[in-house]
User: Which sequence fits this backbone?
């Protein structure tokens, strides 16, 4: 996966970080020299190792993250990329001040965010889609990467309603390049009105590095800007 970091300004949205300093899931090293719990769960061919560096983090909340992983990640893998990593690390890290970041099979979560937003369990759904995406450098636009991840959160999320997380209503000030939930809703509209396999095809093209500007016309019959104008004229999903 390529290396990038995005910090989120909107509540409930996730960050993607593919930073070289993060531990790779294939390694057995601990991504920190001090932690309070390290638990390993193996289920149905998937392994999740949770390293908790936050002394006072609610262990019930930690278990909810684990449960979400084993519910949504196998579904994402089965749908989008069966070659995805089978061993994943979660790090509950008070030194990290974003919401969440993912790279090399390691997802780092901010315990302060989770404590203040305990229903935002589908941070896992978004972050694990980044593992599934596994897009190489130069695969395509970052706004589409994040838009797909939030589209999948809307599709597979298990607690979005309780977290008060949803895709936003269309506004004339929006652009498909806004990324995250705005782009995700546009993708929803495309799936409904243009091509039911739209996101599947875009995701595959990004992973295989075959994405070009022409893919929109190929899949949906018009260039990207024209599709957005059509969406803006009738954004019902």
Assistant:
């Amino acid at each position: 996966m390529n290396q990038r970091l995005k910090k989120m300004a909107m509540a409930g949205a996730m960050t993607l970080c593919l930073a070289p300093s993060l531990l790779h899931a294939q390694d057995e090293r601990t991504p920190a020299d001090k932690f309070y719990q390290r638990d390993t769960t193996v289920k149905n061919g998937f392994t999740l190792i949770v390293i908790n560096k936050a002394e006072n983090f609610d262990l019930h909340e930690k278990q909810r993250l684990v449960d979400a992983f084993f519910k949504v990640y196998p579904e994402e893998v089965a749908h989008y990329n069966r070659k995805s990593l089978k061993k994943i690390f979660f790090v509950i890290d008070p030194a990290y001040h974003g919401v969440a970041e993912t790279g090399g099979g390691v997802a780092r979560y901010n315990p302060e965010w989770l404590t203040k937003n305990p229903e935002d369990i589908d941070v896992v759904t978004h972050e694990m889609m980044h593992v599934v995406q596994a897009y190489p450098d130069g695969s395509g636009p970052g706004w589409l990467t994040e838009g797909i991840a939030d589209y999948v959160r809307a599709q597979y999320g298990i607690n979005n309603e309780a977290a008060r997380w949803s895709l936003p209503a269309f506004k004339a000030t929006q652009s498909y390049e806004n990324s995250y939930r705005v782009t995700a809703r546009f993708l929803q509209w495309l799936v409904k009105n243009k091509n039911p396999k739209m996101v599947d095809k875009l995701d595959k093209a990004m992973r295989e590095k075959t994405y070009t500007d022409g893919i929109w016309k190929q899949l949906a019959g018009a260039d990207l800007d024209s599709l957005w104008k059509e969406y803006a004229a009738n954004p019902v999903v």
Observations:
- Residues 1-32 have pLDDT under 50 and may be disordered.
- The chain has eight helices and five strands.
- The first helix runs from residue 59 to 80.
- The helical segments are 59-80, 111-116, 123-133, 142-156, 180-193, 198-207, 215-220, 224-233.
